[in-house]
Write a structure and sequence with these properties.
- The protein contains five helices and no strands.
- The chain is mainly alpha-helical.
- It has one domain.
- It comes from Pontibacter flavimaris.
Length: 68
């Protein structure tokens, strides 16, 4: 799995996932909280199957910057 989620997108995904979990906990909605795990995992792994399916690469400029 090669990186296809950029740094900014990674942070946004983790924050969105935490927000979904928080909203799910506030409204006592377990399915909404469970859905919040998905953006957290894709952000932490920096790989998203949906991005791979459509051919999007958010790490394009980062490969040369960090020596990867």
């Amino acid at each position: 799995m090669e990186c296809n989620v950029g740094i900014v997108e990674q942070k946004a995904r983790v924050l969105a996932g935490l927000a979904l979990i928080g909203i799910g906990a506030y409204y006592n909605s377990k399915p909404l909280a469970a859905i919040g795990i998905i953006p957290i995992l894709t952000g932490m792994l920096r790989w998203c199957p949906l991005n791979a399916a459509v051919g999007y690469d958010g790490c394009k400029g980062e490969h040369t910057r960090y020596g990867k």
